[in-house]
Amino acid sequence: MTTPSPDSAILDRIQKLFQLADPARGATEHEIKTALEKAEMLMTRYHIDRSRLPISGESGAPDRSFLKNSIPLSSRISTKLKSLFSLLQAATPIRVLIDKSTPSPVAQLIGSKTDLLYAEYLFSYLSNVFDSLWHQHRHQHPNSHQISYFVGLHDGILLSIQQGKEEAEKGLQSEERTSYEIVLRDEAEALQQFIFQEFGRTRKARASRSFCNRESYDSGHHDGQNVQLQRPLEDR
Question: For the whole prediction, is pTM greater than 0.90?
Answer without folding.
Answer: no
